[in-house]
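Figure caption, in words: inputs first, then the predicted bound structure.
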Amino acid sequence: MTIELQASIPHGRIEEKWVTHLDHIRLVGPRNRPKYTIIVVGTGLAGAAAAASMGAMGYKIECFCFQDSPRRAHSIAAQGGINAAKDYRNEGDSVFRLFYDTQKGGDYRSREANVYRLAELSMGIIDQAVAQGVPFAREYGGLLANRSFGGVLVERTFYCRGETGQQLLLGANSALAREIHDGRVRMHTRTELLDIVVVHGRARGIVVRNLVTGEISSFAGDAVVLATGGYSNVYYLSTNAKGCNVTATWRAHKKGAGFANPCFCQIHPTCIPAAGEHQAKLTLMSESLRNDGRIWVPRTKRDTRRAAEIPQDQRYYYLEERYPRFGNLVPRDVASRNAKDVCDEGFGVGPSGLGVYLDFRDAIGDRGADVIESRYGNLFEMYERITGENPRQTPMLIYPAPHYTMGGLWVDYNLMTSLPGLFAIGEANFSDHGANRLGASSLMQCLADGYFIIPLTIGDYISRHPNGEIGTEHPEFKEAEQTLRERTARLLSIHGTRSVESFHRDLGKLMTDHCGISRNEAGLQEALKNIPEIREAFWNDLAINGGSAELNQSLEHAGRVADFLEFAELMCIDALTREESCGCHFRQEYQTRDGEALRNDEEFAHVAVWEYTGEGRTPVLYKEPLHFEALPPARRDYKK
Amino acid sequence: MKLTLQVWRQRNADDAGRMARYRIDGVRPDMSFLEMMDLLNEQLNQRGEDPVAFDSDCREGVCGTCSMVINGRPHGPSRGTATCQLYMRHFSDGARITIEPWRAKAFPVIRDLVVDRSAFDRIMQAGGYVTVHSGPKPDPNALPVEPEVAELALDAATCIGCGACVAACPNGAAMLYTAAKVSHLGLLPQGQPERYQRVQSMVAQMETEGFGACRNYAECEAACPKKISISFISRMNRDFLRATLAEPVNPRGTMDSQ
Ligand SMILES: Cc1cc2nc3c(=O)[nH]c(=O)nc-3n(C[C@H](O)[C@H](O)[C@H](O)COP(=O)(O)OP(=O)(O)OC[C@H]3O[C@@H](n4cnc5c(N)ncnc54)[C@H](O)[C@@H]3O)c2cc1C
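Bound structure (flavin-adenine dinucleotide present):
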């Protein structure tokens, strides 16, 4: 098997590509659409928007999520906001500027044409959401309000208090609810995708497990869309919801879809540190806190005094000293790396030594308690609820945590993976954020993919194939079902001594240490040696109680961890192969004299796409070269 | 900390269920309630017993998945806090804690603490939307919305759909949930064309699902992790009344049979 990387980027100037493409792609007429079944897995912003839009066009949609309601997809947790190049503030914002910021923020490791299209579609998303009744923040005059986000020079972020993801998802879900009511979308909740079925080289369906009854069954369709989110939970502790997983995209990869840039994972600098071994997940504190909070550690190593007892001249404001121009507002990757460095050197604070202070004392002094309260009151409350400490009096403790995965299934301009008939949208694909994502850009991408791109591009694929003709009685389906029943039985028959959780923790720690904020060859080699050992222990010593024909949460978790244990290896191989530093991917061997990331455009201006070649075999690397026509790459330098 | 837990165990929907007692050691005050449950499950697993099934996902108080009645109160003792954001420092060493699932006719138990809340989704499907297709729309600033109206709509829309309101209500009513949904869209200009039809369809669905009647106990507001106000219920009642009094309209006009 080989992978064909036809990115299918339309010809013409970058501003014309999408429009010209739409003029020429094949359409499916309204009378024919109900003859086609499209399977959509995932009901986050990407999946809900796609299922609702395609349902409304008349396609027959089978839609899946593992939660008990489509509204609970992980997108619900997004806080800060969503970008759009509306330029309501008259600041000179434009499609080009949003394109430029995204491309530069991603450290020039994404495909120009896709990024430009994203910027172009950004405005329509806001219009769409408002029409659905999303209650964005308004100014006194009744017009939409904006805020700045993630260190860009314009205010282009739209928001609903601290719950933008929730409101956008409720909007997309209301559209989905309407389609479900009208019968064009059939919704399957508490149902987990376990495999993709390929017939004659095309994705023709999926195998799922009903999480309540344990029943394994299949669905056939004319195309399959994965909107299953990101894989930050490979680190065990991340800001993602507990259920987020790599299962869908990993199984797709094993069935022939290329996996792109798996090592690109964004580590968010401002999260509440782990309190101890029992920690189940990490909570993100909004990035906006860095607008007023000052980050510091004591100048003396392993200083055990309380923050208040440390005099001003013994405080090391390391970001302000190292990056005088950007100070505490350096991009996420830079902030995270510096926090790790000072903690590794022994300056870290808090019970574990893995923490730095985010201090509002000076902001309260300068601007007054009221102003700071009005900006961050709800975040302070949340922090207090979790830690029991009042950040108005003692500085917050923060530490970086895995947050978002830029890597994902490789897709062409139409968002189709290298497996014909299989599409990937939202965080599940690799397409728009390169090696680092800017704040408030994921919600934008999920909705652009779901509302505006996939409903049109999927028609181009569908119209080239006759509908139906293969159903779930086809032997490929039966075989896939059988394999999964055996796998489930195998997981339940190990009768070992250790819980799923304990293996997931071990893997997470290993990945955090060796494939996290900074990486080096020795560490990655070490991880590649250890992952198979954990995997081996997992398959020999796992203990799961309960059966397969019932709700069994340990069994669900075990299936996901089994996949993480395979996937983690690919991440490390990718990180090892990319011998440069770019965005989130900091290889210690490749840095400038003053410790900044050293990109290598000559050898690594490509998307690394991996092909699965079988268990125990080394995956094969394919490269999609990146061409920079509209925007020549520049060095990201936050020191000057 | 050492605790004694009384936990509802029920194998499946057909099982009668019972309370089981567990002693748990090694709980720390900085653990979240769900991390304490994780620890219990770890210990049960070690002993070869089935872990307690419970729902949770984001663990940040926003997805609305977690759902436990703790010492008789949905989401436990802290106001405006979902189970996942409740911390063990609110309990004392040696405490005895009872943990039960949401109890309501319309939320049948699936297993242990996991219940079926799909009735909520069906209420939404009955009318909780504005009918718009995906595609070009007018610029939103062409239609200003007073910030207080947008904020009030957001106060309603902030509902996380957890179902604590139903679990808290002696009658198992879903009025606060439905009212929040109805009010969110009913307040905004975009929601006006379908406003009266929406309230009728959603209330009708609510009744079909077997939720009880509202008797103004206000327990729902007290249990709501998002502190949604019961004033939305009066707002919904007003809309519902107006919808009932109005002449029935056929949204397709009179040309339907042409
Ligand atoms: C705490 C937090 C805050 C954030 N804040 C922002 C922000 O302010 N702005 C911004 O732009 N981005 C933000 N992000 C990022 C953004 O929220 C996500 O990248 C985005 O919501 C992902 O959406 P999605 O539709 O791709 O997937 P998700 O919302 O993750 O949805 C995945 C869906 O797939 C389903 N699924 C997954 N696997 C399976 C399977 N095997 N079988 C069946 N179903 C499956 C799930 O049930 C779910 O419905 C934030 C992220 C976090 C963690």
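Residues 269-401 of chain A form a domain with the Flavocytochrome C3; Chain A, domain 1 fold (CATH 3.90.700.10).
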